Amino acid sequence: MNFQRIEKTDLRDSYDGACVSLWFNGCDIRCKGCHNQSLWDKEYFVENDQVVKDLFSVFLEREYTSLSILGGEPLTPDNRNDCLYIVKSFAKKYPDKKIRLWTGRTLEQILITGDPVLGEILSYCYEIITGPFVEELKDKKLRLRGSSNQVIYRNVDGHLVDVSKEVDKLF
Fold this sequence. Notes:
Order of helices and strands: EEHEHEHHEEEH
Largest sheet: 7 strands, mixed
Radius of gyration: 15 Å
Oligomer: single chain
Structural class: alpha/beta
Strand content: 15-25%
């Protein structure tokens, strides 16, 4: 898997407690002004099983509320199968923990592909934050997003519902 790091006790990428963030390498979107440009190229390759083992060991250290999956771009074609392996393994081991995923793709771009792997990834996510970062729409007041075009969708009974305004009101 194109894996960069696991970050413990991340409070930036959650609003309901400390989370663990898993960062993918590789991005085919490359947004102007991206704060993760160092993750665009595929630098580090680690076996899926090792990443899952490391991730599970981090969750044994303390009570984390969720897993955040970021990048780079976790849904780039090179990362999709690895991302599915991670979310599926995590959801099986920790069914009461939330999974949040950030992607530079819009929900429409994801759905139009018809890729069953993408659909399965989404089914495991509590929330998915979608859309490219647009520097001209940057807004530091937004929670979990860098620019106002990005949308937070929550999986409610298998349906993705825009909760961006609801999340912003929490702060």
